[in-house]
Amino acid sequence: MAEPILQVTTLMKRFGGLIATNDLSMTVERGETHAIIGPNGAGKTTFVSQLQGLLTPDSGSVVLDGRDITFEPAHKRAHLGIARSFQIASLVPEFTVLAHAALAVQSRAGHSFRFWKKAWQDQSLLEPAREAVAAVGLDSRMHSLASDLSHGERRQLELAIALAQRPTLLLLDEPMAGMGRQDGARMTQLLASLKRQYSIILIEHDMDAVFKLADRISVLVAGHIIKTGTPDEIRNDADVRAAYLGH
Q1: Which of 85, 109, 111, 230 pairs as cysteine with 158 (C-beta 3.0–4.6 A)?
Q2: What is the pLDDT confidence band of residue 110, given thresholds at 50, 70 and 90?
Q3: Using only C-alpha atoms, what is the Rg of the chain?
Q4: In this predicted model, what pLDDT tens digit does every residue of 133-158 receive, in sequence order?
């Protein structure tokens, strides 16, 4: 059996007397979309921040593609292929769509940002940036400023920035946050097109999207995974319904 792309073992994270991540273990297989669901305050974002390297666990281990990265800083994890889109978009209003993606390519390559004008003419940056923008359906908005984008388009750009880093593991933290039904359906369709191309951890409150997209789902309650299974197994589990999904 192939080694999982991500293996997390007995992860613990405390903030004073609060246990935010409690003996958490899980795996993500290569090419899998693995959703993490749970009520507000369950510790989902804290967990993903430990995967990205923004938070250091108190104990346990995180192994990416056979390499222990438990104590590696975020920038090194980015070079190893961990990319994240955030719950709240953080874009530069006066930068174009293409500029955002090109900066992400430059960041992944480890180049300095001091020579932006020179980098802007570098086709080795612009070509993969264009590919990432096209992959999320923003071809026609390539040269638009971020400030001119709709909310849904900004979420698409956030995804393009993550894809431009050529991720081994893609961390999506509520990619449909704040979206209406139409934009949410468009993002679900977009994420479905990425299945099998990337290994994905998806945090999302839109259960329709989760059940459509996920190969497996882990249910997080009070920092601990109470159940991992297929969408059908999670949907029909009495403990999961009692803890989160309802009836």
Answers
A1: 85
A2: low
A3: 18
A4: 999 999 999 999 999 999 989 999 99
Q: Which amino acid is at 197?
A: Q
The arrangement of strands across the sheet holding 6-15 comes to 18-28, 6-15, 59-64, 67-68
Neighbours of 138 (CB within 10 A): 20
1-81+168-175+198-247: which CATH number, 3.90.1150.10, 3.40.50.2300, 3.40.50.300, 2.50.20.10? 3.40.50.300
Residues with Cβ within 8 Å of 74's Cβ and at least 6 positions away in sequence, in order, are 52, 53, 54
Residues 150, 2: Cα–Cα separation, whole Å: 41
Helix (H), strand (E), coil (C) string for the chain: CCCCCEEEEEEEEEECCEEEEEEEEEEECCCCEEEEECCCCCCHHHHHHHHHCCCCCCEEEEEECCEECCCCCHHHHHHHCEEEECCCCCCCCCCEHHHHHHHHHHHHHCCCCCCHHHHHCCHHHHHHHHHHHHHCCCHHHCCCEHHHCCHHHHHHHHHHHHHHCCCCEEEEECCCCCCCHHHHHHHHHHHHHHECCEEEEEECCCHHHHHHHCCEEEEEECCEEEEEECHHHHHCCHHHHHHHHCC
Residue 126: band (very low, low, confident or very high) from pLDDT cuts 50, 70, 90: confident
